[in-house]
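Suppose a colleague, Dr. K., hands you the sequence of a protein chain of 387 amino acids and asks what its three-dimensional shape might be. Before reaching for any lab equipment, you can write down a predicted structure in token form. Begin with the sequence itself:
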Amino acid sequence: MTKSFVFTSVLLLVIAVAALTSLGIIMLTSTGAYAQDNHGSPTYYLNHQLVWLAVGAVVCITAALFDYRWMEKRWWVLYAAATVLLICCFIPHLGKKINGAWRWIHVGSQTFQPSELAKMAALVGLAWWFSREGTRPREFLRGFAYPLAGVCFLVALIAREVDLGTATLILCTTLLVMFVAGTRIPYLALLCVLGLGALAAAIRLMPQRTARMLAFLDPEHHVADAYQQVQGLIALGCGGVHGLGLGNGRQKFSYLPFAHTDFIFPEVGEELGLVFTLGVVVCLVIILVAGVVISLRASDRFGKLLGFGIVALLSLQAAMNIGVTTMVLPNKGLPLPFISYGGSNLAFCFAGVGILISIYRRGFGERPDPDGHCVEIRFKKRPTVRL
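The predicted structure, expressed as tokens, is then:
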């Protein structure tokens, strides 16, 4: 894999992210003015998103300039911070309850979603664990039970917030990272069975989730619970190939709830048509392929696993969002990366991109020796080699 090929992957990654982010700002300008709770200002959501976009850009640049390997030694800081912030969601006057879920905490005039930090903490923790010396991925305890227990602690807190979508996303990403790390297939199959069992129990015990599942299986007889997805399909159908024109969408006029957040993809189809919805999918595929190429060129095992985990997380989240809005999956509240309104998600998506760029930059500063170990070459007064 040549350096020019990997550089092209990084360039395509940046272009795809810039295209999706630009489209998100344009669509938020079109839909945010008609969103509920905009405090009487048509640019309320747009202004907040631009603030988080600036934060995300700074985070991305910082992550790209710094060595990603500092997280390998300080993974526990991210894990502890994520745990504390997730607990803070349940503290009165600090946590914020929206639509029956405790997923946010107040940060001045803004709100922050700690589950976004928990996603990154879980990935860094998994990459650290499977890159440790002496870790045996094919053993049940060290290669499956112990790392899974660490992830499930965060997942349990997120599920307690009534955020089953994010909890499912983290578990699916964990499954893929473990597979790449070398965990045995039977153990991963056991994780799938346990995950599906836990999800089924949650759906059965939570009336709202039960209604959503029934609406997914039989939308004609559960129209009220399938309302958002049905309106999303109407928006996509009305847009056709070329769309109704930017700003001319009708579903955002209180017909399609959350048209600026979780269901912004159908609005892209309604106003800009099939051409742009396929363009969104193409950009997401570019991010997936480019991220995998960068991860494969990482100079160490930690970078490979962390890079792959970030790519898997972004790709799965996008696939789940598009699947929900097109009624391929049951309704779950997950934003579309780089496009949907949501400052916390946007900032951490940019952080992931910055880490991928950092992995690329360090991947060509080091080379593997014939035995597969990482050799870093430094030149000071005289050439020295550190094994």
